[in-house]
Write a structure and sequence with these properties.
Shape: globular
Number of helices: 7
Radius of gyration: 17 Å
Structural class: alpha+beta
CATH architecture: 3-Layer(aba) Sandwich
Number of strands: 11
Strand order of the largest sheet: 1-2-8-7-6-5-9-11-10
CATH topology: L-fuculose-1-phosphate Aldolase
Strand content: 15-25%
Length: about 250
């Protein structure tokens, strides 16, 4: 989430000038808060260009919300929103790393069951070394945008990434044989993004399409050739986790 308010106490987002380019750096320690330099250009997204992609992604986002894998709950994570989704945009093929554009839910949208084009932005560039994300859209990008970009860099066939909070999967990660990031890598940081890439390079992540974020309570990432494929991977592993949990009672 992006913090900050004007003299009136109202949030500064969206900026008052529709085409303003605004650099933002949120406080580094708060859970669920943007930890990278966000260079965001506030402007509407085009329905003609992105409407179909948004609707397909929003459908799976709503499924995750109905399952309690995404949303905002006063009883969880200090009442902050959790979970986000993204979809890769063209051009595809030989696109340099850090420039593989993707559609992602905006920050501070976790409380919305139904989302529309107004709740998304397009990440145009991302730089793990400089901890910077450039984006355009009506809202600034999700705090996990660096990690989404890192996955698109190492998995060029991926077309969607779903970040959910699944306590059962997170707790059963070892029994499920799921790759897990180091506990010291915090969510939304370059360290987490680099960890995800390491897992993809060194283990079975490319084949599994799912990982557990060891330093991010209940955090799980699933990816695939479509939002549907990523969603099916996530739900299938949730079912496996529930079977294991039931057997341990």
């Amino acid at each position: 989430m992006t913090r900050g308010a004007g003299a009136s106490g109202r949030p500064r987002w969206p900026p008052p000038v529709p085409d303003a380019t605004v650099p933002v750096m949120a406080e580094p320690r708060a859970e669920g808060v943007i930890r990278f330099e966000a260079v965001h250009q506030a402007r509407p997204l085009e329905e003609r260009v992105l409407g179909e992609s948004v609707r397909a992604l929003a459908a799976w986002r709503e499924i995750l919300a109905r399952l309690g894998l995404l949303g905002q709950d006063p009883a969880r994570y200090g009442g902050l929103g959790y979970g986000n989704v993204s979809a890769r945009l063209g051009p595809f093929g030989e696109v340099p790393r850090g420039r593989r554009r993707f559609l992602v839910t905006g920050t501070q949208t976790g409380d919305r069951r139904h989302v529309t084009l107004a709740d998304f932005c397009v990440v145009e560039q991302y730089d793990l070394a400089r901890n910077r994300v450039r984006s355009t859209g009506p809202v600034p990008p999700s705090s996990e945008s660096l990690t989404h970009g890192a996955l698109y860099d190492v998995a060029p066939a991926a077309r969607a990434v779903l970040h959910a909070h699944a306590p059962e999967v997170w707790r059963q990660a070892r029994a499920l044989g799921l790759p897990t990031t180091r506990a010291g890598a915090q969510n939304g940081t370059p360290e987490m993004a680099v960890e995800v890439q390491r897992l993809h390079r060194e283990g079975p992540l490319a084949a599994l399409g799912i990982l557990v974020m060891g330093g991010h309570e209940d955090g799980v990432l699933a990816f695939g050739g479509s939002a549907g494929e990523a969603g099916e991977i996530l739900v299938r592993h949730l079912a496996r986790a529930l079977v294991l949990a039931a057997g341990a009672r």
